[in-house]
Amino acid sequence: MPASSEKQAKLFRLVRAVQKGKVSPKKVSKNVRQMAKSISPKTVKDFTKLNEDGEGEYTLSKFKQIKDKSFNDLLNENLGIPFDKQELIVFQSKQDNFAGFGKTSFLLNKNKNEIVAELFSNGTTKKFVFKKLIDNKDKNVNKYSLFIQITYPDKPDKDIFYTLSNNFNDKNISEKTKILSDFIERINSYGI
Fold first, then answer.
1. Residue 31, class by beta-carbon neighbours within 10 Å (0-12 exposed, 13-18 middle, 19+ buried)?
2. 12, 31, 107, 125: which is deepest, by most CB within 10 A?
3. Residue 12 in contact with residue 47, Cβ under 8 Å?
4. pLDDT tens digit string along 12-43?
């Protein structure tokens, strides 16, 4: 049975990560540890999926894999504009349990207008780079972007993915912070 909400799916993804040994039981709450012990892995796995009518806006199919460019080339082609204080507060509020880990640090690189987080697990390195972009066709339209580079310990190639948020108007503070918050939550819920 799929989860009935994004929050429930996220919780069960964390429980599943504990069961698989990807997250230390010491880094999660007592409730999550108890769930990992008492619920069968098959049931937990069923609840990691979200019950959605049709395709969700940020489903994994919305992530594009890049094979013909380096990660740095991709980042340099997509020049970001500065994040404002309200957006930085949203990132700060989303640092706990990002991608199924404990506290994650989102670091601002002002020179490149990027928010960066790096996570290490089982020899795998995942680099997340968030940018705020201006639409090439309409300068009044913005989008958030996420670029991900995954480096594996046993293969020389790296996987590179990206995805975009909904459009928003940068002057509408409540709209953009809601879109950014939802964008991070949806990405986080997939445990990339």
1. exposed
2. 12
3. yes
4. 888 888 888 888 888 888 888 988 898 888 88
Which alpha helices (DSSP H) does the chain contain, by range?
6-20, 30-38, 41-47, 71-77, 85-93, 173-189
> Is beta strand 64-66 parallel, antiparallel or unpaired with respect to 158-164?
antiparallel
> CB–CB of 49/9 below 8 Å?
yes
Domain residue ranges of the chain, discontinuous segments joined by +: 6-47, 60-189
Distance CA 5, CA 136 (A): 35
118 three-class SS: strand
**Pairing between β-strand 142-151 and β-strand 158-164 as defined by DSSP bridges:** antiparallel
